[in-house]
């Protein structure tokens, strides 16, 4: 973002303020807006982010990035929490966590974005790192499709340096240095300092992935893809750790495995887009395009009984995540993500 004003003697318009890093905002900004008193600039980015800068200088201009609301610019398609209930993750992907603000009089806690992992990364960039290489930050490409790690040599031995010529270094990206965040990170800090290196790619499905889920013990990951034919309508089970495929459930039927279909029931009027188990009980929730969420119970391991239907939502339900914070089967929180982008 650049602001201009005419030079007093010649009338030529010159750039007086430049804020923002285009490489961090994918294809740049769509537009900007001045605050009423002219000491702040708000911009909207290509990837759905807001960016705010404020002139905090006294004797001269000193424009610094400020905290702004963050989140998604399209429908929420999936949502999940980690096992310790400290992080909340959903696609495209953004990671939110509780941020505690302690003062002498009160202890405030609110949720803020703390990491912005990217997709379409090449796993070989991360798998081939030597033990003497330390990743310090990230450099986002111009199109915003990937983040390359910025690394430094821990030891003076640089004999293997040529093997990592494709990686950015502190010499090429001098601003990527470790930082200790004392306040909620802004968009530029998220882009530089919150790289989550990709470690594996799992191949197998015939079409694009539609849904992912991990069991509450953290032993298995289930994946499914979009399908218009029975040959690719499969649920794959992956073993955490080895990341090998351990089972394929073809067209929702038993396929030479220890898993078999025990019951089948028409549950919603439209397509079911989400399902989530109660971590400590034999209940699960289903969410549908018909704007409803239903709660079910498994009885005797063979039958399913509907317990209740939540009040109808204003938009189609696209994501569910059931968390039992109290470690008791009937006490917990159910997060509901909707096509409109809202989460309740």
From TrEMBL:
WD repeats lie at residues 265-306. Gene3D superfamilies: YVTN repeat-like/Quinoprotein amine dehydrogenase. Its main location: cytoplasm. GO terms for cellular component: cytoplasm; nucleus. The keyword Nucleus applies. PANTHER family: ELONGATOR COMPLEX PROTEIN 2. Keywords: Cytoplasm, Nucleus, Repeat, tRNA processing, WD repeat. InterPro entries: Elp2 (IPR037289), WD40/YVTN_repeat-like_dom_sf (IPR015943), WD40_repeat_dom_sf (IPR036322), WD40_rpt (IPR001680). It is found in: Cytoplasm; Nucleus. Belongs to the WD repeat ELP2 family. It comes from the Eukaryota. The keyword Transferase does not apply. It comes from Cinchona calisaya. Pathway: tRNA modification; 5-methoxycarbonylmethyl-2-thiouridine-tRNA biosynthesis. This is Elongator complex protein 2. GO terms for biological process: tRNA processing. It holds the Pfam family WD40.
